[in-house]
Amino acid sequence: MEAKQLSYLELRDIHKSYYLGKEEFPVLKGIDLDFDLGDFVSILGESGGGKSTLMNIIGGLDCQFQGSVTVDGQRLDHHDEKAMDTYRRDTIGYIYQSYNLISHLSVLDNVLIPLDMTTLNKTKRIQRAKELLARVGLTEQARKYPNQLSGGQKQRVAIARALASDPKIIIADEPTGALDSQNTQEVLQILDEIAKDGRLVITVTHSQAVADAGSRIVHLADGQIDHNQRLHDPYPVSDKPRIQSKLLPASVSYKVAAKHFKYNFWRNFLIVIGTAIGLFAVMLFSGLGNGISGYINKQVTDMVNPQVVSVSRYQKPAQTSAGGGKQGGADQQAQQPQQAATTQASTTGTTSQPKVTSAQISRLKNVKHITAVDKVYSASTVTAKKGSKAVTMTNLANWNASATTNTIKKGNKPGKGEIVVDRDSVAKKLAGNNWQSLIGKTITLNYQTQNKAGKKVTVKLTAKVSGITATSNSMGMANDNYVNTATLTSAMKAANVSTAATSVAVNIDHLDNVKSVTKKINKLETSSKRQFSATSISSMISTIQTYVSLATNVLAAIAAISLVVSALMIIVTMYMSVSARTKEIGILRALGESKRNVRQLFISESLIIGVLSAVLATVLAFVGEFIANSLLSNIANFAFVQISLGNVITVFIVALIIALLAALLPARSAAKLNPIDALAAE
Ligand SMILES: Nc1ncnc2c1ncn2[C@@H]1O[C@H](COP(=O)(O)OP(=O)(O)OP(=O)(O)O)[C@@H](O)[C@H]1O
């Protein structure tokens, strides 16, 4: 043994066996080797002798062996995955017999992969990639894809890529095995120049001619070095500053994933369409829910002021069920007949319904948030006459807080001595098609009721028409003929009819307080007896809306089932992608990418599918919204589909979650692949 200085790369007592079941196949049986920078070493030996195995150990891909590898004075810890990733990224450049270029990346992009793991900025990275391609004579081919190149050109791309990160060791596993003699000579010359650069080139070969081109030949036989021949001294090594390596940034995974997406555009696009259809349906149904809720809300609030609560005296329903005794459900039963209090409360003296007293009105007025309490009078079967024409109004009420000017289509609310009448059932009958002309005209009205003494009397009044009302549908909550309160009460007084009211309309300061105030009114008691029964229109709306949202949520959920199919589609595609890209995974790992980088690669591709699906779904949904609303505009001039920003955001989140979950398992199995096995994949 010659006494030597510390070598750059030292292998000590390397043993390696493969196992088939329990059976051991020893391949390397104690290898001791030293390598210096500037050397161009060829490893010769019989086929199956363990040359590639040794290269994988030197290259940091194989960690299952005994012995030690020391690089630049540092012993490698083959069980420290991160350290090994760094070692491959930083120190090793690989050249393979079968080139191992990534087919969906251009020549330039292939060379850029290791450069993305350096601290160079983008301009410098591209500049270096182009310089390396120029050095191997491929400037013209930079934009081509690997399958558009000859074998010799591919091998030169592989050399440029191996040099990109400025590694100290270049491992070339039969680099000329697939090349003709011309290309072989060129490649050998490049390898020699690489050694001249002060790098260590180790090449595996079967060819004596190739071996002779180097500076040293090592011969492997029966798992040991049997021959070690120096042809010439290593090239001198200068201390040039080296390019520093760094971890691959996540953004690069996205870029590579996007390129792969583009490369397999149609397959991926079909998956995007499949996923987008599910998302689109979810979005459209949610929008339909919003639209219908909005429509109901508008219909109701157009007719009735939603800030008004109708309040009447609370009555126990005990008398109606004589044998029923005291039952728990009394409250609900009591409220039912009161719901339409505005329209039903009759001024006829015969009604058994108790009146709301002025003391009770004062009490209500004192409740916080209540701004006004109006008595509600309502009469049915009222005869209205104008000249010789007469019509019967189904309902006539005083203009009270529950009335809303939204219903007035023409003219104004009734002032003193005035009335507003319904367009279709009254105005058109009295004035024909020219119903607007009724405004300003005086009509006479009369209806029958009982006076304070219980006698039948006729209440008569005249009023000037100040406005015409109309409601777009008949949900039965509107009372479209309203006469001014003072005008009605003075006519009632003239006929000696009681002006006590069975129901009052309570106005609340803000819509948000309606629910709580309604509750409060229902809880008001006098000597532990409940006094009032209050019904707010908003509670009815919210009940209806609960059903609407339930129905649309069920529809959206049914649509969401198709998303499970989408998720499965993504999972299958990702698994297919992993198996189709096994070799690529091996190459990336050999280049120094970590397991995490590989996982990231597949997750980012899936996320790209997710985001594009959500974008497409959004576009489709808004087109769908436009079409649906145009078609439905025949039914009512209202946007029945209203996709909200919230719906869009939800769909994006759902799409991302699906994509992420779908990618998780395939990405994990990709990351777990053994780089050597991955590289051996076809
Ligand atoms: N993953 C593996 N599992 C089991 N045996 C293996 C495995 N990889 C290689 N071997 C065996 O180890 C031995 C050495 O293989 P290796 O590829 O290192 O030889 P080589 O010298 O590079 O051969 P060649 O010159 O033909 O490429 C061979 O007998 C091979 O069959």
Distance between the termini: 43 Å
> Would you tell me the overall average pLDDT?
84
- The total count of helices amounts to 20
Give the overall shape: rod-shaped
Q: Please give the number of β-strands.
A: 23
What's the main sheet like?
A: 6 strands, mixed
Helix content: 40-55%
Low-confidence stretches: 319-351, 474-478
CATH architecture of the largest domain: 3-Layer(aba) Sandwich
Radius of gyration: 44 Å
Strand order of the largest sheet: 6-7-8-3-9-10
Predict the CATH topology of the largest domain. Answer: Rossmann fold
CATH homologous superfamily classification of the largest domain: P-loop containing nucleotide triphosphate hydrolases
Output the structural class.
Answer: alpha+beta
CATH class of the largest domain: Alpha Beta
Ligand inventory reads: adenosine-5'-triphosphate
Give the structure's gist in a few sentences.
The longest helix has 44 residues, at 537-580. The chain is α+β, with helices and mostly antiparallel strands and 682 residues long. It is 44% helix and 22% strand.
